[in-house]
């Protein structure tokens, strides 16, 4: 009879360790899915933020042209006269004025992009 109980205890121990392994594996799967999900959302947010900034610059240029009859000669002019603000540490803006009657070429680069 003694062997019968030892065998039963061994089965309980094996079942407990299997349950622990399944629990840990399930937890790790949830953590990895959460991390992947937040990375995807963060990436989409960064690209959307850059697009919103480019749209704001375009609206400022068009407003300047409508009110003054010429496009702004520099990004600084948009900042000083039309209230354009943005985080200069996170975004680089290449602003190329092509003439007073031609809309400037604007490129917004997110400096936070991961390589």
Structure report:
The chain is mainly alpha-helical and 115 residues long. It has one domain. It has helices at residues 2-68, 75-82, and strands at residues 91-96, 105-110. It has a two-stranded antiparallel ribbon. β1 and β2 (105-110) form a beta hairpin. The longest helix is centred in the N-terminal third of the chain and has 67 residues, at 2-68. The relative contact order is 0.11.
Count of strand segments: 2
Instruction: Please report the distance between the alpha carbons of the first and last residues.
Output: 66 Å
User: What is the approximate shape?
Assistant: rod-shaped
The chain-level mean pLDDT equals: 84
Q: List the quaternary state of the chains.
A: single chain
Side by side, the strands of the main sheet go 1-2
Rg: 30 Å
Question: Number of folding domains?
Answer: 1
Quote the beta fraction.
Answer: 5-15%
Count of individual helical segments: 2
Structural class by SSE content: mainly alpha
Summarize the structure.
The chain is 65% helix and 10% strand. It is mostly helical and 115 residues long. It has one domain (2-110).
List the helices and strands and how they pair.
Layout: H1 2-68, H2 75-82, E1 91-96, E2 105-110
Antiparallel strand pairs: 1-2
Descriptive terms for the model:
two-stranded antiparallel sheet, 115 residues
